[in-house]
Design brief:
DUF7992; DUF7992 domain-containing protein
Length: 151
């Protein structure tokens, strides 16, 4: 399908412990390398990932407009997970009580909310993949204990 819109601005990555997110469990190192990741995003990873994602997303321009009205792209968080040797992320989402809160005037169906949440999650993963494959060149600092049994 594809989406033909301008790339939203790169988010500012703030110092947040990823373990505070409901959907994240990070073990080990607390050097999340946000400064380095933000530099990579600004050097082209964000735009490259957005272009790749926009080619295949099912999100339409109206839904994208809702996401930009709500500044959802600015709420993304990316961090280095040294234990798993990967870039982790937290994607913003529309809360379950969106109807009661009158969250956005154009939100009127669960299908729209679901589409937005799923599409933003997919975008976050594309950004992580681009960062890991094309920008990140550091090795994980995690080393397993030497006394692990052989199986």
């Amino acid at each position: 399908m594809g989406l033909d819109v301008d790339t939203p601005p790169v988010p500012e990555l703030e110092e947040v412990d990823p373990n505070e997110y409901e959907d994240a469990e990070i073990v080990g190192d607390t050097d999340y390398k946000r400064e380095e990741l933000e530099v990579f995003l600004r050097e082209g990873a964000w735009e490259r990932a957005f272009d790749e994602w926009a080619e295949d997303t099912d999100l339409d321009e109206r839904e994208f407009g809702i996401a930009t009205d709500l500044a959802m792209f600015a709420e993304f968080d990316f961090f280095w997970d040294g234990f798993a040797d990967r870039v982790g992320y937290h994607a913003p989402g529309i809360p379950e009580d969106w109807k009661e809160r009158d969250y956005h005037p154009e939100l009127d169906e669960w299908s729209t909310v679901s589409s937005l949440n799923a599409s933003l999650t997919e975008f976050g993963q594309v950004v992580c993949d681009v960062l890991k494959e094309e920008y990140v060149d550091w090795e994980s600092e995690y080393e397993p204990p030497e006394d692990l049994p052989d199986f």
